[in-house]
């Protein structure tokens, strides 16, 4: 058995060394020399001529540009600051105004000194207590009412066609996602 294993190892070694014999190194050297002699530089540029196309007339040139957001297009009859609903841009922002309202979570409410107070969890992991009149969300949302299970917020949003508008949104306690 030991002799059989020795013969097998000898045969494997011989076959490995046979594969390393004449690898046609002379042919490889000729190919490399041909590559070295060939001219370098960029490959030739092939240009394809396209047929002439007739000019097209754009029929919607008087409309809003589709390449600009609606807020970037100036509208002569609607101003961002002339409305009674326009938010106070000079007011110092409150901590929860850095986050979109959808990312804030109502975790609880309690009564302190005869007033309802809501506990709001923000995406950065902080819990902030808010009361009626505080601001939250990126759309100038102001807390209008706090009940045991809900915080009602009045947001102010600007549309190019209608100017500043108010919308009512609510945060509710989600007992499944605590």
Automatic annotation (TrEMBL):
<dbReference type="InterPro" id="IPR007446">
    <property type="entry name" value="PilP"/>
</dbReference>
<protein>
    <recommendedName>
        <fullName>Pilus assembly protein PilP</fullName>
    </recommendedName>
</protein>
<feature type="signal peptide">
    <location>
        <begin position="1"/>
        <end position="23"/>
    </location>
</feature>
<dbReference type="Pfam" id="PF04351">
    <property type="entry name" value="PilP"/>
</dbReference>
<feature type="region of interest" description="Disordered">
    <location>
        <begin position="36"/>
        <end position="95"/>
    </location>
</feature>
<keyword id="KW-0732">Signal</keyword>
